[in-house]
Every structure is written in structure tokens, then in C-alpha cells.
């Protein structure tokens, strides 16, 4: 079962993270639900109010960690704060709140029976932990790996609970403040089903085929594909936020040509397994507000580049440059279209060659500024009225041409 622990660690962390995000459950033994009644633990039953208490303490702990990080590392302040003094004051208030829970912070030690299925898996299978299969003088098993993984996840959340394995009696020993011990028991209960399921799946794969190594390679390629492609359900918002969301899951080089480009609103969209450059190029096809459009350029690295030490090409990524597409007439948008009527009744040249010269001059100017197709110019000979409709700048240009032609001697 080479590298199996690494493959299933993410399953345990995911389950534990879900537990942290949801309301913290009341304490329960670590064994998963079975057809036969679970073995009772020696710990006292959790009172009805324990869940709310643990949830409140977890919230205080998380906020204290954020405040401590901001204060010691001078990083961005947590939401709702504007200065380090405010952060220190809030930390002091939270520490005072924590003191009110002295009963729940009393150090305790609880022994929990190991789920029989986890014991059976550890006895039947020998996982490969690489160059360090031993921890101290004890060979590590799936039981050790499961306990270590849950403990590590809890530690990242600030928990002081420690989990040790007593294999001879098939028990887990959890030590720490009372409420964090209860939190650890709930986290193990949540993580265990997914952990066992993943172990059994991988065991079946290895037992059923000699191509198990090929399967693992393919799975690794799949994970790499997930990490190197865009998988997003975008609810709509500024382009800069979309770029930030993509960068949080995929390594890519994205450059906004101008800061104003980042404010353009990208409508809701959903994609899966799309290369970053293809994803951003596809945004060119999406019509934006006021007729705007994006222009996306992908600058690929030159082939055959090496690091000077090895003949193997260095893996580099392209640069994706996003700009706003400039039309022939930058103000060619619905809101900028206007119209104007020119009264040529007092102009002697409104008849014959003079009017022809005026129309030709207007057409030449519109061709020159690229708005000929957007302009409509009509002359009503009986009333000697010239009607023009099109982009505002072009209408102003028509007015200037009319004035110049009428004033010619």
C-alpha cells in the first residue's frame, strides 16, 4: 500500500474541516455506527448544553488565533478592526470570556475504544510510510496514521488536544482541556467513515488488478489535472475577483493591462477542467455591460528552453494578458448614440454640387474614423434638412464639416 496514507490524508482533513465549519457536535465515541451496539466509554455523558458551549469556545479560539497572528506578524487585520490597538483590546476581551469557561478548560484524559473495523484494517494491511515507517520504537499503522491526521488538523485550528494510541488494548487516549477533548472525539467520529471507505477502496484496487500502479499513476494525473485546470462556479462580479478566485486554485500568470480592466463585471458562469489560458480566452466571447468586450492575449514560452544544467526543457507557464477590446470608435455604445438635424435652408450650396461635396466630405470623414457603418446621413431636398444619427463624436464631426463647407467662399 505504497503512499496510501498520503492519498487518504486529504479525506480525513476534508471531513474534519466540514466538522469545524458546521456546529460542533456533542461528544461521542470514536467508533463509527455499527449493526451491534457500540462499546460504551468510561467518559461521563455530555450534557445537553455541551454542543453550544463547545461551539462558542471554538469561535473564541479561532478569533484569538486571527488576532494573535495580526498582532505578532503585523498582517492584515481581521474583519471589523481598523488598528492594532483594537485588535489587542478585542483579544483581551476574548481572553476574559475564555476565563468564564474554567470548568470546560480543566485538563482531562479520556480513553476511547478504537473502532473494530479500523483495528481489522490495520492488522490485515501493512501501509508503506516511506523512509520513516517507525515512530519511536513502534511501527506505525493505519490507527496511528488516522490519529495523527486528526490531531494535526485540530492543531492547525489551535487545539491543544493530544491523541495517542494504545494498541495492546485497542484504545485511543485523548488529553487536553475538557472541551477540546470533546471536540477531538467529534472530529474523529466525523472523519472515520471517509477514512475507512478510502482505505477499503484502495485495498480492493490493489487486490483486484496487477495494474494497480498504473491506476495510482492515473489518479495522480487526475489530481494534477484538477490542480492545473479551472474548476469554478462563478456567481458574477468584478474581473479582478474572478482572476483572484482562479489563482487561488490554479497556478497561472494573469496580467491586467490596466487597473480599470479589473472593474469590468463578468456575468455568472460555470466551467470544469479548462486550461487557464483557454478559460480566459473564452471571456472574449462574453458580451459585457455597455457593449464592452475583453481582449485576451496568451504569450507562450519559447520551446526548448533549458535551465543551463540539464537538457530537459524547463517547465514554464504562459502569460495571459487581459485588456479591454478597443472598437474603431471607443464610444460606440448604445448610450453614446445620438442624432442631429441641420437646417441648410439659408445655404445656397444646398442645391447641386455643393450638397454633393458636403455628403462626400462627411462620408470621407466617417470612413477615416471607422464609423461609416454606424452612421446614417440623409438629406431631405424639399425642406433642405440634413439628418444625421450615430456615435456622439461622429455627430460632432459632421457638425464641424457642415460649418466648414457652408463657410467656404
Descriptive notes:
About 45% of the residues lie in helices and about 20% in strands. With about 400 residues, it is of the alpha+beta class. The protein folds into three domains: about 5-220, no CATH class; about 235-325, no CATH class; about 335-405, Ribosomal Protein S8, Chain: A, domain 1. A three-stranded antiparallel β-sheet has the order 1-5-4. A three-stranded mixed β-sheet has the order 8-12-11, covered by helices on one side. Strands 13-15-14 form a three-stranded antiparallel β-sheet, covered by helices on one side. A hairpin with a 2-residue loop joins strand 2 and strand 3. The model is unreliable at about 20-45 and about 330-335 (pLDDT under 50).
What order do the helices and strands come in, and which of them pair?
Blueprint (H helix, E strand, L loop, with lengths): L3 H18 L28 H24 L10 H16 L7 E7 L2 H9 L9 E2 L2 E2 L2 H15 L5 E5 L4 E7 H31 L3 H17 L1 E5 L2 E2 H9 L5 E4 L8 E2 L2 E6 L1 H7 L11 E6 L19 E6 L12 E7 L9 H17 L6 E5 L4 E7 H16 L2
Parallel strand pairs: 8-12
Antiparallel strand pairs: 1-5, 2-3, 4-5, 6-10, 7-9, 11-12, 13-15, 14-15
Q: What is the molecular shape?
A: elongated
Reported for the largest beta sheet, the result is: 3 strands, antiparallel
Total tally of structural domains: 3
User: Strand order within the widest sheet?
Assistant: 1-5-4
State mean pLDDT (0 to 100 scale): 78
Termini, distance in Å? 97 Å
Number of helices: 11
Let me know the number of strands: 15
Calculate Rg over CA atoms.
Answer: 35 Å
Order of helices and strands: HHHEHEEHEEHHEEHEEEHEEEHEEH
Amount of helix? 40-55%
Low-confidence stretches: 22-44, 330-335
Question: Which structural category fits the helices and strands?
Answer: alpha+beta
Range of strand content:
15-25%
Amino acid at each position: 500500500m505504497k503512499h496510501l496514507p498520503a492519498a487518504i490524508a486529504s479525506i480525513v482533513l476534508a471531513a474534519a474541516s466540514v466538522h469545524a465549519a458546521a456546529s460542533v457536535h456533542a461528544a461521542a465515541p470514536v467508533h463509527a455506527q455499527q449493526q451491534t451496539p457500540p462499546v460504551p466509554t468510561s467518559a461521563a455523558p455530555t450534557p445537553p448544553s455541551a454542543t453550544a458551549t463547545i461551539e462558542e469556545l471554538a469561535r473564541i479560539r479561532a478569533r484569538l488565533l486571527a488576532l494573535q497572528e495580526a498582532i505578532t506578524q503585523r498582517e492584515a487585520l481581521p474583519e471589523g478592526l481598523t488598528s492594532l490597538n483594537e485588535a489587542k483590546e478585542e483579544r483581551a476581551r476574548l481572553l476574559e470570556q475564555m476565563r468564564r469557561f474554567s470548568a470546560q478548560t480543566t485538563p482531562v484524559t479520556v480513553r476511547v475504544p478504537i473502532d473494530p473495523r479500523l483495528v481489522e484494517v490495520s492488522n490485515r494491511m501493512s501501509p508503506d510510510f516511506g523512509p520513516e515507517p517507525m515512530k519511536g520504537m513502534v511501527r506505525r499503522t493505519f490507527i496511528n496514521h488516522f490519529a495523527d491526521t486528526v490531531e494535526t488538523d485540530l492543531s492547525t485550528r489551535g487545539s491543544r488536544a493530544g491523541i495517542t494510541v494504545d494498541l495492546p488494548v485497542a484504545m485511543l487516549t485523548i488529553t487536553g482541556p475538557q472541551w477540546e477533548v470533546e471536540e477531538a472525539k467529534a472530529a474523529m467520529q466525523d472523519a472515520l467513515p471517509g477514512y475507512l471507505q478510502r482505505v477499503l477502496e484502495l485495498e480492493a484496487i490493489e487486490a483486484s488488478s496487477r495494474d494497480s500502479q498504473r491506476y495510482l499513476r492515473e489518479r495522480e494525473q487526475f489530481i494534477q489535472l484538477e490542480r492545473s485546470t479551472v474548476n469554478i462556479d462563478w456567481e458574477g462580479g468584478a474581473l479582478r475577483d474572478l482572476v483572484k478566485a482562479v489563482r487561488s486554485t490554479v497556478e497561472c500568470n494573469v496580467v491586467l493591462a490596466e487597473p480599470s480592466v479589473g472593474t469590468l463585471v463578468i456575468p455568472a458562469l460555470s466551467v470544469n477542467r479548462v486550461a487557464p489560458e483557454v478559460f480566459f480566452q473564452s471571456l472574449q466571447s462574453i458580451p459585457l455591460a455597455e457593449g464592452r468586450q475583453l481582449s485576451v492575449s496568451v504569450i507562450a514560452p519559447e520551446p526548448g528552453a533549458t535551465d543551463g544544467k540539464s537538457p530537459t526543457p524547463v517547465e514554464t507557464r504562459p502569460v495571459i494578458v487581459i485588456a479591454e477590446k478597443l472598437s474603431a470608435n471607443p464610444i460606440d455604445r448604445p448610450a453614446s448614440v445620438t442624432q442631429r438635424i441641420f437646417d441648410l435652408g439659408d445655404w445656397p450650396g444646398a442645391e447641386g454640387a455643393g450638397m454633393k461635396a458636403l455628403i462626400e466630405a462627411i462620408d470621407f470623414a466617417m470612413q477615416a474614423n471607422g464609423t461609416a457603418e454606424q452612421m446614417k446621413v440623409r438629406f431631405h431636398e424639399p425642406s433642405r434638412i440634413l439628418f444625421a444619427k450615430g456615435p456622439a463624436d461622429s455627430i460632432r464631426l459632421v457638425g464641424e464639416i457642415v460649418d466648414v463647407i457652408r463657410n467656404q467662399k
